[in-house]
Design goal:
This protein has 20 helices and nine strands. By secondary structure, it is of the alpha+beta class. It has one domain (about 20-485): Orthogonal Bundle (Cytochrome p450), CATH 1.10.630.10. The mean pLDDT is about 95. The structure holds protoporphyrin IX containing FE and 2-acetamido-2-deoxy-beta-D-glucopyranose (2 copies). Protoporphyrin IX containing FE binds near residues 291, 355, 425, 430 and 431. Its cofactor is heme.
């Protein structure tokens, strides 16, 4: 009897402590006196997101729409974790550009000693990030990106082999653009030539470890403890594989002695004071982590929109064919520069289907908003809801309509500076934005030059997104009918 009694009391005690902790966590914005969305017990303001009922971007968009104009930012909770959601485009501009020095961190978890590949540009913060960023800026120069173009073009040739000469066919577009994007990452980030990347492909699908929601929460809130407990974000065999590949490719390259620059690995190891090899391998993994998903998603979304808008698709194809003709069929930097309309189509794709639906910053110093009583405290996590901004009817008229003309010079100038941020910007913006654009364009040239795309019975319209991911991905594979044009 006594035992049961004690067990009951302990359980009651534990529940009370848990309840009190949750209540204290969810009282943060109230104690700060900051406008906020009232949280629900445990889930805060993202209830449907945790169980996959809706996408994170929709939850953010709802809060954005409800509070925009009422304050420069609003507080909300992702489960128990308080976040600031920025509502005012001027404040977005300050955080990203003018006062970026207050917001150099992202606050993601990394564990460099236990998991060396997590020491990458995306995950690191503080002085480690700063010196790495300086090194990486030497790698991602326009000149270097142009040097990668011939290899990119070579890789893109496989798209046309894949599509072949068959007259009309239903194709799994997700697969087609997925293979291209993976070939590019295998080659550019890891130095793997050739085409058969089966093992690489396997590990790109399976690198997430068994990180549970509560572990992820602990790692974000208490990184020191998580590192002490040696939390690992990724599956160990996958990390071992990626590290092995990167290191052996670098050694191979040194043995062969200075081949022309064709990969990020080489660009890093040819720098004046190169990083050590494992740190370079970490960057390769970071590029895969940050870049593969959005690249294939963007190409897929783009073909989907072009299939639904045949007149825009014809305009792209005409532009591509004419430009190639003027450059004797060669995809050169000049040639890409002239693909003006195709670039507008790409940007409109990134606006309507923003692969990273929000940007994340952590305040490294207290930030007082000029001319107001509001303060962003040191350590606060800040979300910039880019996808919501990209579909804000006060910024983009009829936001659900796909209309590349929004990216004509005149129209662009009429919008506020922070109205379009698919790659983020400023100090912590996407370091590979230029490279990504180049790769997307090269892919589109190969895809559109000789083939036409149209919706078919298996095309899901309207587009549905995968709610279980923070990055924007189609829920089911994109299928289109493909036809060769002469
Ligand atoms: C369509 C393709 C891509 C999109 C839309 C995209 C978008 C983004 C965004 C929104 C961020 C966060 C920026 C911020 O917080 O302000 C980011 C960061 C980053 N991206 Fe990309 N990205 C793409 C492709 C790539 C590729 C191909 C690579 C690598 C080759 C890459 C490497 C990185 C890295 C390393 C960071 C972290 C930079 C830092 O924190 O210093 N991205 N990207
Ligand atoms: C389409 O391709 C993807 C990626 O390779 C694959 O996972 C999926 O099973 C394919 N879907 C269909 C229905 O063929
Ligand atoms: C597309 O967007 C990028 C910013 O991500 C911008 O630098 C570029 O000029 C835009 N291009 C066009 C044609 O609008």
């Amino acid at each position: 009897m006594d035992l049961i009694h004690r067990a009951l009391l302990t359980a009651l005690g534990a529940v009370s402590v848990f309840y009190a902790l949750v209540k204290i966590s969810l009282g943060y914005w109230k104690r700060r006196g900051i406008l906020h969305e009232k949280p629900k017990f445990l889930w805060g303001n993202i209830k449907g997101v945790v169980n996959g009922k809706r996408h994170a971007q929709d939850a953010l968009r709802e809060i954005y729409a409800a509070y925009k104009g009422k304050a420069p930012f609003v507080g909300f909770y992702a489960c128990l974790k308080p976040f600031i959601l920025v509502l005012d485009l001027k404040l977005v501009h300050q955080i990203i550009f003018t006062d970026a020095g207050h917001f150099t961190s992202r606050g993601l978890y990394s564990n460099p000693s236990g998991e060396p590949l997590s020491a990458n540009l995306l995950q690191l913060d503080g002085h480690k990030w700063r010196s790495l960023h300086a090194k990486s800026a030497e790698v991602f120069t326009p000149t270097n990106m142009h040097k990668l173009l011939p290899t990119l073009t070579q890789i893109s040739a496989r798209i046309q082999c894949d599509l072949g000469k068959e007259n009309q066919q239903t194709r799994n577009i997700s697969e087609l653009v997925g293979v291209y994007s993976m070939d590019v990452m295998a080659s550019m980030a890891f130095g793997l030539g050739g085409q058969d990347h089966q093992e690489f492909a396997k590990w790109t699908r399976n690198y997430w470890g068994g990180f549970k929601l509560w572990q992820a929460y602990l790692a974000l809130e208490f990184p020191l403890i998580a590192r002490l407990l040696q939390y690992k974000s990724y599956a160990e065999p996958a990390m071992a594989y990626f590290q092995k590949v990167a290191l052996s490719q670098m050694q191979e390259h040194r043995r062969r002695d200075r081949q022309p620059l064709q990969t990020f690995l080489q660009l890093y190891s040819n720098a004046d004071q190169p990083l050590d090899d494992v740190k370079i391998a970490a960057q390769a993994f970071g590029f895969l982590l940050a870049g593969l998903g959005p690249l294939k998603a963007t190409l897929g979304f783009c073909l989907y929109e072009l299939a639904r808008h045949p007149e825009l698709q014809d305009r792209c194809r005409l532009e591509i064919r004419k430009t190639l003709e003027q450059h004797s069929g060669q995809v050169t930097p000049e040639c890409l520069r002239e693909l003006k309309f195709t670039k507008q189509v790409l940007n409109e794709t990134l606006r309507l289907h923003t692969p990273y639906p929000f940007l994340l910053r952590r305040a490294t110093k207290e930030f007082e908003l000029s001319g107001s009583v509001f303060v962003i405290a040191r350590g606060n996590s800040v979300l910039i809801p880019t996808a919501a901004i990209h579909r804000d009817p006060e910024v983009y008229e009829e936001p659900e309509r796909f209309d590349p003309d929004r990216f004509e010079e005149e129209a662009k100038r009429s919008r506020p500076p922070a109205a379009f941020l698919p790659f983020g910007d400023g100090l912590r913006g996407c370091i590979a934005a230029r490279f990504a654009e180049q790769q997307l364009l090269v892919g589109l040239v190969a895809l559109l030059k000789d083939h036409r795309y149209a919706p078919c019975a298996e095309t899901t319209i309207p587009m549905e997104y995968d709610n279980r991911r923070l990055l924007l991905m189609p829920k089911s594979d994109i299928k289109l009918s493909v036809e060769r044009v002469d």
